[in-house]
Amino acid sequence: MAAIFYTLATLKDRLVEADKERGATAVEYGLLVALIAAVIIGTVVILGGRINTAFQTIVTALPGG
């Protein structure tokens, strides 16, 4: 229970701090979007071949494939 209160207090403190630093939020959101895009691209590059192979295996296993 104490951990929940600590988390909520920390979140409140961060929100108060965020109100003080409004100019940096656009940059932070931009960095976050770039990081998410990089993770998505990396995942597609790494798993893309495996997914393609799996679909090709399914297609060849179907009747008439």
From TrEMBL:
InterPro entries: Flp_Fap (IPR007047)
Transmembrane segments: 29-48
Pfam families: Flp_Fap (PF04964)
Keywords annotated in UniProt: Membrane, Transmembrane, Transmembrane helix
Name of the molecule in the record: Flp family type IVb pilin
Phylogenetic placement of the source organism: Bacteria, Bacillati, Actinomycetota, Actinomycetes, Micrococcales
